[in-house]
Amino acid sequence: xxxxxxxxxxxxxxxxxxxxxxxxxxxxxxxxxxxxxxxxxxxxxxxxxxxxxxxxxxxxxxxxxxxxxxxxxxxxxxxxxxxxxxxxxxxxxxxxxxxxxxxxxxxxxxxxxxxxxxxx
Length: 120
Hints:
Elements (H helix, E strand, L loop, with lengths): L3 H10 L1 H24 L4 H27 L5 H22 L1 H18 L5
Helix pairs in contact: 2-3, 2-4, 3-4, 4-5
């Protein structure tokens, strides 16, 4: 039988290590999803990376929710919840409607090239 209390205790006892791993993993996986989408890589490749990134984001959100369960409401919990949610949404967008995300990334790239002609 699954013991939810043991999972909560593990999450709280190892919070720093969990966050130290999940924050960079979320950022790197989401950035990789954006890069692959922007480069118009094959859908299967984007799906794999975005799926892993969604898993990382989901774990982070669940980890933060364990703190809300015991009543810990502080700025870091909201920051981590926001990070996990944004990463989840961006990766879900890449999976569900990659063409619109690709268009947005192209527009942002064009604006950056116009704003910084040295880069172009």
